[in-house]
Amino acid sequence: MKILVYGINYSPELTGIGKYTGEMVEWMTSQGHEVRVITAPPYYPAWEVHGEYSAWRYKKEQGAATVWRCPLYVPKQPSTLKRLIHLGSFAVSSFFPLLAQRRWKPDRIIGVVPTLFCVPGMRLLAKLSGARTLLHIQDYEVDAMLGLGMACDRKSNVAKLAQRFEQSCLRNVDNVSTISRSMMNKAIDKGVDPQRVIFFPNWSEVARFRDVAAADVQVVRESLRLPEEKKIVLYSGNIGEKQGLESVIDVAQRFADRPYLFVIVGQGGGKKRLEKRVTDCGLHNVVFHPLQPYDALPALLKLADCHLVIQRRGAADAVLPSKLTNILAVGGNAVITAEPETELGQLCDRYPGIAVCVEPESVDALAEGIECCLALPAHNAVARVYAERTLEKENVLRQFIAALSPEEFGVKS
Fold this sequence. Notes:
Blueprint: E1 2-6, H1 16-30, E2 34-39, E3 59-62, E4 66-69, H2 80-93, H3 95-99, E5 108-113, H4 119-129, E6 132-137, H5 141-147, H6 157-171, E7 175-178, H7 181-189, E8 197-199, H8 206-210, H9 214-223, E9 231-236, H10 246-254, E10 260-265, H11 271-281, E11 286-289, H12 297-303, E12 306-309, H13 323-329, E13 334-337, H14 343-350, E14 356-358, H15 363-374, H16 381-390, H17 393-404
Parallel strand pairs: 1-2, 1-5, 2-4, 5-6, 6-7, 7-8, 9-10, 9-12, 10-11, 12-13, 13-14
Antiparallel strand pairs: 3-4
């Protein structure tokens, strides 16, 4: 089967959408499918293009999959306007490489959102080549932007225009997939036929995160200079607007006299601001580290006594944090900030003990949740069992391919 994957984020990005798209493509090629990818140079979450790539030149990479890297604008400090230019620049630069795939005649086009700006080009190629289309929603970018107040009021003309464009994109592809049940319901609420909606959750290599050697944990602890006598409260991932990590700094200030060390591992547009705040407050119980290699991730997650899955109010149902899958697989104890009616809130309600769920943007609630989490047994059996039953990579990808087109997508046993 010929599959074209089209999206702005891709390997070798270590976190988020790029990581999952890259792993999906790797799995598809291993199953004998012929895959091509149209994407951008890696830049996330640092918002800086990796050194061996260029933001201004096209590049073709040949491997198990053929990959075209298309130029784009990458702002150093993302704002709403700069993000729109960033997303639009990729949609424009990738348009002609996309249409060039007409001669190849893909059977399926899988578009990964963000960005919705790419959907018109994807639909045009489908009409020219006879391909069927699937839009995979990793992030409801319009809802996230409006819910976080990053753009305009939901009732403004601009917001209504953005919502109509989103609905048009969702309704005019053959299938829509997304990563959580509540996000599936949201697609249906936006007018997508329920029969065309596919559940495609982010996954974990459960065995890799289940079997972590104590020696590996010690190596990572020593490399990051994390003292044995401290309880490690870990946030690992993107440091941006959706997270609202300022509350973590406020909690750290309250716990300055406790044997807790707040470890923030990651990159993103908000990192410098957080570092400055820690310096201004004179805090010695908060340390920052860059993203760690994927090979070190299981050990990093295993050493934490408390994991933080932090999101601002309004984002927890538009975005499901990809970091949570590996935290569950490692059997970690986590504090999740989410309202009860969101996907994350419902997850904690359906599986008591899977995590500690607290009110978003509340320093009091977060502080209480961290103390509760640190009092739990070191191994979270509920989280581990859920990961093994629901998030195993091989099972998730096989079910996705089967649901996408069982009569066409053969899967090797």
